[in-house]
Design brief:
Number of strands of chain A: 21
Largest interface: A-B, 92 and 85 residues
Bound molecules: flavin-adenine dinucleotide
Oligomer: heterodimer
Strand content of chain B: 25-35%
Largest sheet of chain B: 5 strands, antiparallel
Strand content of chain A: 15-25%
Structural class of chain B: alpha+beta
Shape of chain B: globular
Strand order of the largest sheet of chain B: 3-4-8-6-7
C-alpha cells in the first residue's frame, strides 16, 4: 500500500494544461489552488497563465450573461436579506470549519459562479471547502437544520450546469479532498478522495503497470467525485465501460449527515445496487467523500488506425461494420471536416486535411490478437471505402494522434468566439440520418456545427459555433442544441450520453420521459433527500416546468406532486 | 393476449392489489422458486409475456420481454455470433430473462466481462402504483435520469414488475480453451490473484475439488499465446464443465441436497483470506464468488461475512424459514427501505423475497 499526495501530481498536470491549452474553466477548476497553502503557489501561477491563454484563445462557451435566477430556483431573499443570511450562515459555519474554508466575498465567489457551462451563472451565498469527512457531515447536518440548499462541486468541468450554484444555497467544494488514500497494486484497487483528478489516478498506477480505465477528455482536470456523479465516459469506454463499471465502493454522506458505505471490495453487496443508482446521480442523492476504483493491467500493446473517408456517412457505416465483424475496439472516434481541420491546426498531430471524416480506431490486448485485428479492421475500412489509412508506427505517434482528438473541443473553440457542446446518444444505425438532419438544422439557424464524437457508442458531441457578443446568438444556439437533442430522442436515443442533465437539459428531459416516470425519479430523490436540499432543481424537471416547456401533457391539468419542489 | 392488453392487465392487477392491501408474487417460469421461501401471495406470471422486441446485431443491443427464455435469447444471439456476456446461469430449461435480471445472476465470466447489471441498458417496469414506466434506453451511454434499470437488476422484483429489458451484447469469442491445474489447498488464492493482474484473455477461473480451471477466450492467436504462457492441462469438452459451474449442476453442489447441509453464495473480495467457516468450498469468479456447503447456522455465516466485508445469500436450506440475506446495517437498511417504498409504497411486490424488513 502506498500513500500518495494528490497535489504533487497536480503540478505536472497544470503544466500540461498550459502546454495543451485546454480551455476547461481553469479558473474555477481548482479554486483551492488559490488558497493559502504555499505548496500551491507555483500551481496558482501556472493556473493564472493557463487562464490567460484560455481567455485570449477565447475558446469557451463563456458569456457575460447575468445570473439567470429562474434556472437555479427562485431566490427567497431580497439582496439585503441575502447579505444578512450570508453573514449569519458564515458565522454559524465558523463553528464547524476554519475561517479560511469559508468563502463569502464577491471576489472569492466569482470562480464558483458556473461550471464548464459558463453560459449559466449564479452566485451562491457561500462556498465551503471542508477537509474532512466529519466536516462534510457537520455541514450537511447544519444545512438540513437550516434548510439550506447544498450544491456539491468537484473540479467544475461539468458541461451541463450540474455544479451551478443555487442562489440561496452553498457550494460544497471538494477540492481539498485530493488524496490518493491507498493504491493496492497487488489487488488492483485504489482508494481515493473525490477531489483527486481522474488522470492523477492513472499516473499513480502507471509505475505498477496499471491504470484507471475511464478517460474523459477533461481527465487532466476533472475530479473522480465529479466522474462518479456524472457516470463519465471517455474514448475507451466502448471496451472498458463507464465510471459505473469501474468503481467498487463509495462512501457517501447523506443529507442527514450519516456516513454510508455503498458497495464493497466484493463484486456485489447485500441490498439494492445503490452503487449503480448513485453513479450518475449528479449530486442529487448524497455527497461522495471516498471512492474505491478498479485498476486494470495496462494492455500488452495498443495500436491505432487512422482512416480517412470522403463522406461522414461512409465513416459512420464503417463504425457499424467493424462491430459487425465481431471486433470491439478499445476506442472508436469520429471527427468531421471542421473538427479535423481545427484539431490539426491546434495540435499539429498529423491528421490529413481535406477529408470529410476521420476515424480513430484503437485496438489493444495481446500482441498476436491485436495484429490480427488490425488486419481485420483495415480490411473492413477498405471495404467501406476509406480514402486512406494509416497505422501509428510508434507509441509517440499513437499518443500524438490521440492528442488531436482529446483537444478537439478547445481546438474547435478557436474556429469561433464561442462554442456550445451537445451530448446526445443515438442508436448508431441512425448516424447518417441524424448527421443529415443536423446539417439542415445548421442551415436553418445559420450556425456552423463541428462533429467530434464517440462513434463506437453512438455518443454525439456536435459543437455549435457561435458568437455570444452578437445579440440573440446564444439563445439561438441553445434552441438549436435543444432541437438536436430532441432529434436524438426521436430516433430512440437520449438527451445525454455522459455530460449529465444538470440545469442545461432539464427541459429536454420532459421530451424523453413521461410524467409518471419523472414522478418516480422524484420519489427516488425523496427517498434520499426528502426535503430536496441536495442540488435542488437539477437533473429531473418538475412536472410544472415540463408543462411550461410545453413538451408534455399534464393529465387533466393535475400535477401529481405539486409540492415536491421546495424552492 | 397482445402486448398492450397484457400490460394493462398487469397494471390492473397491481392497482387492485395496492387498493386491497394484497400482495403479488412475480414469477417468470418459476425456475428460481428455490431462492425464496414459499409465498402465500397471489402469483403474477410473466410467462406469457415473451419474445424479442428488437435486435440489431451491429448496435450490440437486444430488447426482449421478461418472459423470453434465456435459451431462446441465447439461440437468437448465437445465430449472429453474439452472446450475453454475463453468462446468465439457468437452473432449468425455461429460465426467463426477467428472472435472471431480477435476481441479478451472472455466470463464471462475470469478473472479467461484467455482471448482469453492467449490461442492462434499459427497462420498462410497472411500479407498485400500477404505473408503466420506462427507464434508460437502447443506447450504451445514457445518463438521463437515475439509473433505475441497474437498480432493478438484483432487486428480486421488489421494485416493480420488469416487463422489457434492453441489454448490451457482445460478439462471441472466436475460440475458448480451458486449462486445468492441480491445487491441493482449495483456499489458496495466490495463483488466482496473480492471474487476474495479468493482461491475459481470462474469461473464467474456478477452484473446485482440488483443481483450478482457467478459461481463456479470444482470438485464436491470443488464446494460443496464453496457453503457451500458462501451461497446465487442456480440458476437453470444457463447455459442459462451465455449464455445470454456472448452473450449479456440478456434483460438488449435489452435496447440499437432501440433508442438513445448506448451500451459500458468498460475495467477497477476490483476495480476501479464507473465512472461518467449516464446510466444502468452491471458489468461482477468481475467488470473488465462493460457494460454501456447510451445516453452520445462518447467523454464523452472516457474522463471518460481516467481519470480512463480504455478504452471504442462502441458496438452499432445509429450513424454509431460514434467513437468506446478509443483514444490512442500520443506515443502509433505512436507505434500502426508503428506496423500496419509493417504488412500492403499499408493499405489493414479492413480500417474501429480498430483505423482507425493507417492505412497506
Ligand atoms: C474539455 C472538456 C472535455 C470533456 N470531456 C468529457 C468526456 O470525454 N467524457 C465525459 O464524460 N465528460 C467530459 N467532460 C465533462 C466533465 O469533465 C465531466 O462531467 C466530469 O466528470 C465532471 O467532473 P468535475 O469534477 O469537474 O465535476 P463538477 O463539474 O464539479 O460537478 C459535476 C456534477 O457532479 C456533482 N459532484 C461533484 N463532486 C461531487 C461529489 N463529491 N459528491 C456528489 N456530487 C458531486 C456536482 O454537484 C455536479 O452535479 C468534459 C468537459 C470538458 C470541459
Amino acid at each position: 500500500m502506498t500513500g500518495l499526495h494528490g497535489s504533487v501530481v497536480t503540478q505536472s498536470a497544470i503544466i500540461r494544461v498550459c502546454h495543451y491549452n485546454i480551455p476547461i474553466n481553469i479558473r474555477s477548476a481548482v479554486p483551492a489552488a488559490h488558497a493559502h497553502i504555499t505548496l500551491h503557489h507555483l500551481e496558482a501561477r501556472l493556473l493564472d497563465n493557463a487562464q490567460e491563454q484560455f481567455t485570449s484563445g477565447g475558446a469557451s462557451g463563456a458569456t457575460s450573461q447575468t445570473s439567470d435566477v429562474d434556472r437555479s430556483g427562485t431566490p427567497r431573499f431580497s439582496p439585503q436579506d441575502r447579505q444578512a443570511r450570508r453573514e449569519q450562515y458564515a458565522e454559524e459555519l465558523r463553528q464547524l470549519l476554519d475561517d479560511s474554508a469559508i468563502l463569502s466575498t464577491d471576489e472569492q465567489l466569482i470562480p464558483y459562479e458556473s461550471d464548464g457551462l459558463t453560459a449559466m451563472r449564479a452566485t451562491p451565498l457561500l462556498v465551503v471547502l471542508p477537509e474532512t469527512t466529519e466536516q462534510v457531515q457537520a455541514i450537511l447536518r447544519w444545512a438540513r437544520s437550516r434548510q439550506v440548499p447544498v450544491v456539491a462541486r468537484g473540479a467544475g468541468t461539468g458541461l451541463s450546469g450540474g455544479a451551478l450554484p443555487h442562489e440561496d444555497g452553498i457550494i460544497l467544494g471538494l477540492a481539498k479532498f485530493n488524496q490518493i488514500l491507498s493504491l493496492d497494486a497487488e489487488h488492483g484497487v485504489a482508494r481515493v478522495q473525490p477531489g483527486v483528478r481522474n488522470l492523477a489516478i492513472s499516473d499513480a498506477a502507471r509505475p505498477h503497470n496499471l491504470y484507471y480505465a475511464p478517460d474523459p477528455s477533461s481527465q487532466i482536470a476533472c475530479s473522480i467525485g465529479g466522474n462518479v456523479a456524472e457516470n463519465s465516459g471517455g474514448v475507451h469506454c466502448l471496451k472498458y465501460g463507464l465510471t459505473v463499471h469501474n468503481i467498487l465502493e463509495v462512501k457517501v454522506v447523506t443529507i442527514d449527515g450519516d456516513l454510508v458505505t455503498i458497495g464493497s471490495a466484493a463484486l456485489d453487496s447485500a441490498g439494492y445496487d445503490l452503487l449503480a443508482l448513485l453513479t450518475g446521480s449528479e449530486g442529487m442523492l448524497a455527497v461522495t467523500v471516498e471512492i474505491t476504483v478498479k485498476l486494470l493491467p495496462v494492455p500488452e500493446v495498443a495500436r491505432l488506425i487512422m482512416a480517412a473517408f470522403d463522406t461522414v456517412e461512409e465513416a459512420g457505416e464503417a463504425v457499424g461494420a467493424v462491430i459487425a465483424e465481431g471486433v470491439i475496439p478499445a476506442g472508436l472516434e469520429l471527427m468531421d471536416g471542421p473538427a479535423i481541420e481545427a484539431a490539426e491546426a491546434f495540435a499539429q498531430c498529423g491528421y490529413p486535411t481535406n477529408v470529410a471524416a476521420l476515424l480513430l480506431c484503437e485496438l489493444d490486448g495481446m500482441e498476436a490478437e491485436v495484429d490480427a485485428q488490425i488486419q481485420q479492421v483495415t480490411r473492413v475500412f477498405e471495404r467501406c471505402g476509406a480514402a486512406s489509412q494509416h497505422i501509428a508506427t510508434s507509441e509517440a505517434e499513437r499518443l500524438q494522434l490521440w492528442k488531436g482528438r482529446k483537444s478537439a473541443f478547445p481546438a474547435v473553440g478557436r474556429l469561433s468566439p464561442d462554442y456550445y457542446c451537445i451530448d446526445g446518444t443515438i442508436p448508431r444505425r441512425h448516424l447518417p440520418t441524424v448527421l443529415r438532419r443536423m446539417d439542415t438544422l445548421s442551415d436553418e439557424y445559420g450556425l456552423r456545427i463541428a462533429n467530434v464524437f464517440h462513434a463506437g457508442d453512438g455518443n454525439l458531441h456536435p459543437l455549435i459555433l457561435f458568437d455570444a457578443n452578437i445579440p440573440g446568438e446564444l439563445e439561438r444556439t441553445e434552441e438549436l442544441g435543444s432541437r438536436i437533442l430532441q432529434l436524438c430522442v426521436e430516433v430512440g436515443g437520449t438527451v445525454t450520453g455522459e455530460h449529465g442533465v444538470g440545469m442545461e437539459k432539464i427541459n429536454e428531459m420532459c421530451v424523453q420521459f413521461d410524467p409518471a416516470t419523472l414522478t418516480q425519479f422524484h420519489a427516488v430523490k425523496a427517498a434520499f433527500d426528502p426535503q430536496g436540499l441536495l442540488n435542488p432543481g437539477k437533473a429531473v424537471p418538475t412536472l410544472q416546468r415540463c408543462a411550461e416547456f410545453g413538451a408534455m401533457h399534464v393529465h387533466k391539468g393535475q400535477l401529481p406532486h405539486p409540492n415536491l419542489e421546495r424552492f | 393476449m397482445d402486448t398492450d392488453d397484457f400490460i394493462k392487465d398487469c397494471q390492473a392487477q397491481v392497482t387492485s392489489a395496492a387498493q386491497h392491501k394484497e400482495t403479488l408474487c412475480i414469477v417468470g417460469n418459476n425456475t428460481k422458486a428455490f431462492l425464496a421461501p414459499p409465498s402465500a401471495a397471489q402469483t403474477l406470471s410473466l410467462s406469457a409475456y415473451a419474445g424479442i422486441v428488437s435486435y440489431e446485431p451491429t448496435e450490440l443491443v437486444v430488447t426482449a420481454k421478461a418472459g423470453t427464455t434465456i435459451a431462446a435469447l441465447t439461440q437468437a444471439l448465437s445465430e449472429q455470433g453474439q452472446m450475453m456476456p454475463f453468462e446468465p446461469p439457468t437452473f432449468a430449461e425455461q429460465d426467463t430473462l426477467g428472472g435472471v435480471i431480477a435476481c441479478g445472476l451472472s455466470g463464471p465470466r462475470r469478473p472479467y466481462t461484467g455482471s448482469a447489471r453492467d449490461f442492462v441498458l434499459g427497462t420498462s417496469v410497472i411500479n407498485g402504483q400500477g404505473e408503466h414506466l420506462r427507464f434508460g434506453g437502447e443506447v450504451m451511454k445514457n445518463v438521463a435520469g437515475y439509473d433505475v434499470s441497474r437498480l432493478q437488476t438484483g432487486a428480486r422484483g421488489t421494485l416493480g414488475v420488469i416487463l422489457d429489458i434492453s441489454m448490451k451484447v457482445l460478439p462471441r469469442p472466436e475460440t475458448e480453451t480451458t486449462l486445468v491445474f492441480e491445487q491441493e489447498t482449495p483456499n489458496d488464492l495466490a495463483p488466482q490473484i496473480k492471474l487476474a493482474r495479468q493482461p491475459l484473455p481470462v474469461s473464467a477461473s474456478v477452484v473446485i475439488d482440488k483443481q483450478r480451471f482457467v478459461r481463456l477466450s479470444g482470438s485464436q492467436a491470443s488464446v494460443d499465446a496464453s496457453v503457451q504462457r500458462l501451461g497446465g492441462q487442456v480440458l476437453h469438452d470444457d463447455a459442459a464443465f462451465w455449464q455445470s459451474i454456472k448452473n450449479l449442476t456440478h456434483p460438488f453442489f449435489a452435496a447440499s441436497d437432501g440433508d442438513a447441509n445448506s448451500l451459500w453464495r458468498i460475495s467477497i473480495a477476490d483476495y480476501a483470506p479464507a473465512l472461518p467457516l467449516v464446510g466444502q468450498w468452491c471458489l468461482d469468479w477468481g475467488g470473488a464468488q465462493r460457494w460454501l456447503i456447510t451445516d453452520e447456522a445462518p447467523t454464523a455465516v452472516f457474522a463471518a461475512c460481516a467481519a470480512a466485508g463480504a455478504s452471504a445469500t442462502c441458496y438452499r436450506h432445509s429450513d424454509p424459514a431460514a434467513q437468506r440475506y446478509q443483514p444490512l446495517d442500520d443506515t443502509l437498511l433505512s436507505l434500502n427501505r426508503a428506496v423500496r417504498q419509493s417504488f412500492d409504497p403499499h408493499g405489493v411486490f414479492n413480500p417474501d423475497h429480498f430483505h423482507t424488513e425493507t417492505r412497506a
